[in-house]
Amino acid sequence: MELNVPVFKTSDPVVVIAGGVGPMAGVEFHRDLLVMNSQATRDCDHWDTLHVAFPSMIPDRTHFLRTGNGENPGHVIARLIQPYLQLLRESRREYAVMVPCATFHAPVILDAFKAALGDAIKGRFVSMVDPAVTRAIQYGPRVGFMSTSGSRIGRVWDSGIEQAGGISCVLDRERQEELHEAIYQPGYGLKAVTPPSEAAVARLQDCIDNLCDQGANSIILGCTELPLAETRLRTHGAALIDPGKEIARALQSQMPHKEYLLAT
To answer: What's the CA gap between 96 and 170, in Å, rounded?
Structure first.
């Protein structure tokens, strides 16, 4: 599977994080971008990064996919980041854009986002799906995934796995709803409680146990809040795949060598 990561020609590209979906997921990806930069020995060796987050203005992606009501979140996020992309283009800065939300990658939302931005996003968007699926397939053909119910509706992960020649291991409807509650529930869900609550972790563990019982060689943590609980989960030998880390690794492969006149 081709990763479609921009190839930079200059030494000062910018990573644009369209965050706020959810907010902590954007922070964690920003952290991955810093921690996984093996070339950095000084502050100035890190990626120039523009992290744009207006969570109060962005509609819930799963609600939109379930009901079709309200404005398409893809249009909203495009409108929020467009002025910043315009500034980068006027400054002749290369850039890559990523949105740390798997549900956003449902075609009805992602396609609207790309159409709204046109040439400003063409060849510059980095998908969460491709790097994660590529990594997962390396552990074997049977790939499980855990996601919001919105991502299930949009077939974000199972479609990517099948296109890569893998076999999807999926949760039944009851477990899928329990997983969605573990992410969204206001009293104990990952979006509401940090660090993850015992109730949320217990539901995640039940899902992992089920996917392992189906023979999953790897399990994609296919909602960007799920890696917040990664260290507390037992995997029974299956590899856990964090899409944020895989994007950071893919971008790192294209990190240009920086030359500076003055040492810090």
So the answer is: 31
